[in-house]
Amino acid sequence: WLFREFVSMLKADRIRILRKRWLVDPDASSRVALRGLMDPELRQPKGWAYIFINPAKQVHKRRDDEVGTLIHELAHVLLPKTSERKILRIEDILTKTFTREQRAILKQFIPRHEVKRYPRSPASTALTR
């Protein structure tokens, strides 16, 4: 069920996935690198969101490791009120239970290129038009 939900969200273009180096938590004072980020501040009014994945080798040794981070961030989108601890458990369980084919399908949604900057927030683009 969760796999089908993840794929339907990704196919419906409700989520935009971006790979960005130097990904840090904008709310934390420490500059610790994150594996991924689903920033609720960048949520679009039409019900879609940005997911950032850190492609740095220190964070993800291989591109296949980014699928676990994608699962984690998709769980945040699908289950927004769930605690981080439970999301980590969900990620661990799903990463182990998804088949190789399912992980390959999810990997297809992760772009190969990296972005240099964060996209503009919807509020700031609306004000500049």
Automatic annotation (TrEMBL):
This protein's name: IrrE N-terminal-like domain-containing protein
Source organism of this protein record: Candidatus Curtissbacteria bacterium GW2011_GWA1_40_16
